[in-house]
Amino acid sequence: xxxKVRVLAAVxxxxxxxxxxxxxxxANPPANPPEQAPAQTPAAPxxxxxxxxxxxxxxxxxxxxxxxxxxxxxxxxxxEAPYSLDGLKTCRQISGAFQELNLALGPDFHAGDKYHxxxxxxxxxxxxxxxxxxFIPFRSLVRxxxxxAPADRRLRAAVSAGYARRGFLRGVxxxxxxxxxx
Length: 182
Known about the structure:
Layout: H1 2-15, E1 21-22, H2 49-63, H3 73-80, H4 91-105, E2 115-116, H5 119-133, H6 139-146, H7 148-175
Antiparallel strand pairs: 1-2
């Protein structure tokens, strides 16, 4: 047990060295700032060191059903009707719905973004996950029995529906020739 804790501590130390990230978009802001976007700013992507470390450490609690991950309301709504335009009559409303999805999913893909990966951080993440996940024998059976696996499948389905809805809203926004670009 002490060896596992030491390995886990070493893994997190290596994780602190860096994580995978995408280059930020070009530093040239648009000429006209978006007036139609809501006042909220998008949340940072959930790929940071602290978030990964928390996710790895709390995995056993989720596996046995002690801790549960809730599906954000915007993703639950997207799961029910990803291609619905109910309540979205204006460009401003579409932009607002798009921004809500960005808050739940993280920033959208932008052409030209370059992906950089820190191999040591990815190895540390994989090692930490392996060590932590070894705490529960017959983990996959336990996850099914406690309902953790079905909950993860529901969350992944909701995230997929959120991506589909965000792409759909972007298409409708562009088709209607709304300004500024999303």
